[in-house]
Amino acid sequence: MLKFALKLDGVASFALGLLTLLIRPEVGMPVAWQVGLGSFCVVYGVGVFFLGTREVPDRRIVLLVIIGNAVWAADSVLTATLDWFPLTGVGVALVLAQGLAVLGFAVLQAVGLRSAAAPSRPLSRSAA
């Protein structure tokens, strides 16, 4: 599950970054911020997808990804609710939606990391 969650995060982040860079939907955020965030998402997406292709992803890097996703999700809620930018209604909806998605990635990755760290138990044999 961990590798799937990392790859899913990578694909979604890359796609969001491309959308932000190529289409730049009108959300009320300054263009320079959109370009910066879009560029970050493209690079991050490639990196996280690559991490998900490793035979055994490095636990420390996965933990950083999980923490980063949790911070990103919290920042999304703050950005949408504290009027840091003059977001449009669509902008608020998009920022909250991607924040919720990122939180979902963090949860999936945390569950995957935990299950990957659990010691494997031998299957019990039924008495014949």
TrEMBL record:
Q: Which UniProt keywords apply?
A: Membrane, Transmembrane, Transmembrane helix
Please give the superkingdom of this protein's source: Bacteria
Which residues span the membrane? 35-52, 61-82, 88-111
* Protein name listed in UniProt: Integral membrane protein
Q: Which organism is it from?
A: Lentzea albida
